[in-house]
Predict the structure.
Amino acid sequence: MAGFSSFAPKTKNLVVAGGLSAFVFGVYFYTMRAVGGTDELQTAIDKFELQKSKEESESTITSKA
């Protein structure tokens, strides 16, 4: 990094800020892509809610009879 020391302090700060910003956005988009790739949790929640509503409707039918 011999060439990096010849820059003005403000330019060094901009280079570091740009590098850090690129890293942070890269990690963010990678994480969002990895998490959004599978929707297993939402599918499990939907199945649980459906099962729960069926059990509640069955219990109200049997209690009315």
The mean pLDDT is 84. Residues 27 and 33 are 10 Å apart (CA to CA). The longest helix spans residues 9-36. Helices lie at 9-36, 40-64.
